[in-house]
Specification:
alpha+beta; Jelly Rolls; three-stranded antiparallel β-sheet; 10 helices; binds 2-oxoglutaric acid
Length: about 270
């Protein structure tokens, strides 16, 4: 059940927490399916292997829902009913599923990315696309961090999602003082328990951070309107013919299938 409090927090702060979407029994199966997906992605060339360690090179790979990779327990988790219901509220209608990134990091991996706004990263600061979304009070798209193991890597500046930078923030972005080692005024660390999710407005200032010693097993799935799918830089998968095959689509949970089909239809209208 999505509460009004969660919706209010999302629009005010730019994020909220959806707790216990996946129960403990299911979680074991979902985690096993995630590991199989990583291995399949490495074997089939959907993710790069680090030749020294034999594991994933870097910290992420794109599109774990590819027909050659999609495994039922993981797809069920991505389609958790409250996640899609939340996306539906943000979009005002059945959402399109814009893209997914699997973030898989071993204990010894130092993940130290900079503070950023995804709208700057995707389209470039001050570009027409970035300016199109900068001041939208309510952007009809949401990025959802789904944690399969406890995740304390996500940091966010509440309230930074639908406004321009303050003078101080602007100076930091201009001067490149956005490195991971710098704290950001007002930022909070969002701790996500295994099986819970955090929808956030990716225009907000955020970063990830993981030093060695902990593993990370999380996913980021982006939902939005068909219009946002057309503008998105991560929806290119939907142009690939494999995703439109009936056997694949029929294997997906209904709500997720509809979201995938919406994106396929949207990108073909471009
Ligand atoms: O790793 C994280 O928690 C944040 C991910 C992130 O910054 C992004 O997807 O843009």
């Amino acid at each position: 059940m999505i509460s009004n409090r969660q919706i209010e927090q999302y629009y005010r702060d730019g994020y909220t927490v959806l707790e216990h979407l996946i129960d403990q029994d299911q979680l074991q199966e979902v985690r096993a399916s995630y590991e199989q997906t990583i291995e399949a992605a490495l074997t089939l060339g959907h993710a790069q292997r680090n030749e020294e360690t034999g594991r994933l090179k870097g910290h992420r790979f794109q599109n774990p829902h590819h027909p050659a990779l999609a495994r039922s327990p993981l797809m069920q988790a991505l389609a958790a009913s409250d996640v899609v219901k939340f996306a539906r509220k943000v979009c005002g209608s059945d959402p399109a599923m814009l893209g997914i990134a699997a973030f898989a990091m071993e204990q010894d991996f130092d993940y130290l990315p900079d503070w950023h706004r995804d709208s700057y990263a995707a389209w470039g600061k001050d570009s027409p696309e970035e300016l199109r979304v900068r001041h939208m009070k309510k952007m009809p798209a949401t990025q959802v961090l789904l944690a399969l193991e406890d995740d304390a890597s996500f940091w966010f500046v509440p309230g930074s999602h639908n406004r321009a930078n303050t003078a101080l923030e602007e100076a930091r972005f201009e001067e490149g003082r956005t490195g991971w080692q710098e704290s950001f005024e007002g930022a909070i660390q969002v701790e996500v328990a295994a099986g819970s999710a955090v929808p956030f407005d990716a225009r907000g200032i955020h970063r990830g951070l993981k030093r060695s010693g902990v593993r990370r097993r999380s996913l980021f799935v982006v939902y939005g309107t068909a219009e946002e799918a057309r503008h998105s830089t991560i929806s290119g998968w939907a142009r690939e013919a494999e995703y439109a095959e009936q056997t694949y689509l029929e294997s997906l949970p209904d709500n997720f299938r509809r979201a995938v089909e919406q994106t396929i239809a949207a990108v073909h209208e471009n």
